[in-house]
TrEMBL record:
<dbReference type="GO" id="GO:0006897">
    <property type="term" value="P:endocytosis"/>
</dbReference>
<dbReference type="GO" id="GO:0030864">
    <property type="term" value="C:cortical actin cytoskeleton"/>
</dbReference>
<protein>
    <submittedName>
        <fullName>HIP1R protein</fullName>
    </submittedName>
</protein>
<dbReference type="InterPro" id="IPR002558">
    <property type="entry name" value="ILWEQ_dom"/>
</dbReference>
<keyword id="KW-0175">Coiled coil</keyword>
<feature type="domain" description="I/LWEQ">
    <location>
        <begin position="7"/>
        <end position="248"/>
    </location>
</feature>
<dbReference type="GO" id="GO:0051015">
    <property type="term" value="F:actin filament binding"/>
</dbReference>
<dbReference type="GO" id="GO:0007015">
    <property type="term" value="P:actin filament organization"/>
</dbReference>
<feature type="region of interest" description="Disordered">
    <location>
        <begin position="253"/>
        <end position="279"/>
    </location>
</feature>
<dbReference type="InterPro" id="IPR035964">
    <property type="entry name" value="I/LWEQ_dom_sf"/>
</dbReference>
<keyword id="KW-0963">Cytoplasm</keyword>
<feature type="coiled-coil region">
    <location>
        <begin position="207"/>
        <end position="243"/>
    </location>
</feature>
<dbReference type="GO" id="GO:0035615">
    <property type="term" value="F:clathrin adaptor activity"/>
</dbReference>
<dbReference type="GO" id="GO:0048268">
    <property type="term" value="P:clathrin coat assembly"/>
</dbReference>
<dbReference type="InterPro" id="IPR030224">
    <property type="entry name" value="Sla2_fam"/>
</dbReference>
<dbReference type="GO" id="GO:0080025">
    <property type="term" value="F:phosphatidylinositol-3,5-bisphosphate binding"/>
</dbReference>
<dbReference type="GO" id="GO:0032051">
    <property type="term" value="F:clathrin light chain binding"/>
</dbReference>
Length: 279
C-alpha cells in the first residue's frame, strides 16, 4: 500500500510525468546500489581475510550481477513503454494516454517503485552482512522480493504491449535473467552462511587458556560418550548378525528337509533268468 500511489492526490495530467520520474528514480537507485556494492567490496578486502573475505566477495559479486540485470530490465521496460505509448495514443498526447489508462499507469508506477525499493533493500542487507551486523536471511528475502517485483513490472508492461513486440521479448528475457541472478544471490548467501558457521565453530583464536582447557575437557567427554555408544552399536550389530546367520541356517536346513524326497523301499535282487536250452 505504501508503494501504491494515491490516485485521489494525483491529477491525471501528472501521471505521465510520474511514470518518467519513477523510472528515472529507479535507474538512479540501481546506479547508486552498484556504487555502494563496489565500496563494500573495497572495504571488505581491507577489513577481512581468509574465508570471510571469500564469502563476502562471492555474495557481493552475485549482488553486482543482479543489479546489472535489473538495470538492463529497467532500460528495456522504458523502451517498451515508449513503444506502447507511441502505438496506442493516436492523436492524443503522451499525458492524455497515461491519463486515459490511469489504472495501468498506476500499476506501472507501483511496479517501478517496488523494483527500486527492492534494490535498495538488497544493498542495505548486503552491507549489514559484510559488517556482521545483519542476517543472511535478509539477503535471501530481498532476492525473492526483487524477483516478485520484476514479475510485476513485466506483467504491467505486457498488458498493453503487442505480442509481436521485440521489446516485449527482450523484457521477458531480462526478467528471466533477473530471476537467475536472484537465485545466484540466494545460492551464494546460503553457501557462505554454511561456510562461515563451520569456520566459527573451529575458531579458537580468541579463547583464553582456561577457556581452551574447559573446551578441551568437554570435547573429551563427548568423544568418550560417542566411543562408548559406537562400541555398543558394534556389539548390537554383531548380535544381530549372529541371530541372522542362525535363523538363516535353520531356515535353510528346514527347506532342505522339506525338499528331500523320502527314500524308496529297497526291493529284492532279481536273479538273472536262465538261458534257453538248445534243442
Amino acid at each position: 500500500q505504501e508503494l501504491r500511489p494515491k490516485s485521489l492526490d494525483i491529477k491525471q495530467e501528472e501521471l505521465g510525468d510520474m511514470v518518467e520520474k519513477e523510472m528515472a528514480s529507479t535507474s538512479e537507485a540501481i546506479e547508486d546500489a552498484v556504487r555502494r556494492i563496489e565500496e563494500m567490496m573495497s572495504q571488505a578486502r581491507n577489513e577481512s581475510s581468509g574465508v570471510k573475505l571469500e564469502v563476502n566477495e562471492r555474495i557481493l559479486n552475485s549482488c553486482t550481477d543482479l543489479m546489472k540485470a535489473i538495470r538492463l530490465l529497467v532500460m528495456t521496460s522504458t523502451n517498451l513503454q515508449k513503444e506502447i505509448v507511441e502505438s496506442g495514443r493516436g492523436a492524443a498526447t503522451t499525458q492524455e494516454f497515461y491519463a486515459k489508462n490511469s489504472r495501468w499507469t498506476e500499476g506501472l508506477i507501483s511496479a517501478a517503485k517496488a523494483v527500486g525499493w527492492g534494490a535498495t533493500q538488497l544493498v542495505e542487507s548486503a552491507d549489514r552482512v559484510v559488517l556482521h551486523t545483519g542476517k543472511y536471511e535478509e539477503l535471501i528475502v530481498c532476492s525473492h522480493e526483487i524477483a516478485a517485483s520484476t514479475a510485476q513490472l513485466v506483467a504491467a508492461s505486457k498488458v498493453k504491449a503487442e505480442k509481436s513486440s521485440r521489446n516485449l521479448g527482450r523484457l521477458q528475457e531480462c526478467s528471466r535473467n533477473v530471476n537467475e541472478m536472484a537465485a545466484n544471490v540466494v545460492a551464494s548467501t546460503k553457501s557462505g552462511q554454511e561456510q562461515i558457521e563451520e569456520k566459527d565453530t573451529m575458531d579458537f583464536s580468541g579463547m583464553s587458556l582456561i577457556k581452551l582447557k574447559k573446551e578441551e575437557m568437554e570435547t573429551q567427554v563427548k568423544v568418550l560418550e560417542l566411543e562408548k555408544r559406537l562400541e555398543g552399536e558394534r556389539v548390537r550389530l554383531g548380535e544381530l548378525r549372529k541371530q541372522h546367520y542362525a535363523l538363516a541356517g535353520t531356515y535353510d536346513a528346514a527347506e532342505e528337509g522339506e525338499a528331500k524326497p523320502a527314500p524308496a523301499p529297497r526291493r529284492g535282487i532279481l536273479k538273472k533268468p536262465p538261458l534257453a536250452q538248445k534243442p
